[in-house]
From TrEMBL:
Domain Transcription regulator PadR N-terminal, first and last residues per copy: 28-98
Gene: phaQ
UniProt xrefs under InterPro entries: Metal_resp_DNA-bind_regulator, Tscrpt_reg_PadR_N, Tscrpt_rep_PHB_PhaQ, WH-like_DNA-bd_sf, WH_DNA-bd_sf
Biological classification of the source: Bacteria, Bacillati, Bacillota, Bacilli, Bacillales
Top-level taxon: Bacteria
Protein name: Poly-beta-hydroxybutyrate-responsive repressor
Length: 136
């Protein structure tokens, strides 16, 4: 009788990709603070914590946001180098971002409840920071 070699389980860390639709409010949030060119915006999103942003998809998404009137762009030729397209959020983009913020607030409450049930001693960082600030 043939014996199969014992399979070993390998611990793999799964990196969760940022869903494409979650990338949109992150982009709009940064554009709300300042208008910027695409590369600069991509850097800010990476600093925000999005680990991998596909450059081709990122620029396609920016063009789609412009078609949907959530952002607008103009060419900046005054920088002394090659012309760069500068993106800005529109009023429609602001409303879209506000809707997302409301939804995320709702999901944040659900996540807090999840972790309270998962581990009653778990205190989310946000909540522990708020309570320290309230004590001051």
């Amino acid at each position: 009788m043939d014996q199969k070699p014992e399979e070993t389980k390998v611990d793999k860390t799964t990196k969760l990709a940022t869903p494409k639709n979650f990338l949109i409010p992150i982009m709009l949030l940064h554009l709300r603070e300042w208008s910027s060119h695409g590369y600069e915006l991509m850097e800010k999103i990476t600093e925000f914590g999005v680990e991998s942003v596909d450059q081709g998809n990122f620029y396609r998404l920016l063009r789609q946001l412009e078609k949907d009137a959530l952002v607008t762009s103009e060419w900046n030729v005054s920088s002394g180098g090659p012309a760069k397209r500068i993106y800005s959020i529109t009023e429609a983009g602001e409303r879209y971002l506000e809707t997302w913020a409301g939804s995320l607030s709702y999901y944040q409450k659900m996540l807090d409840q999840f972790f309270n049930l998962y581990n009653p001693f778990f205190t989310p960082y946000r909540a522990s920071t708020q309570s320290k600030n309230e004590e001051d």
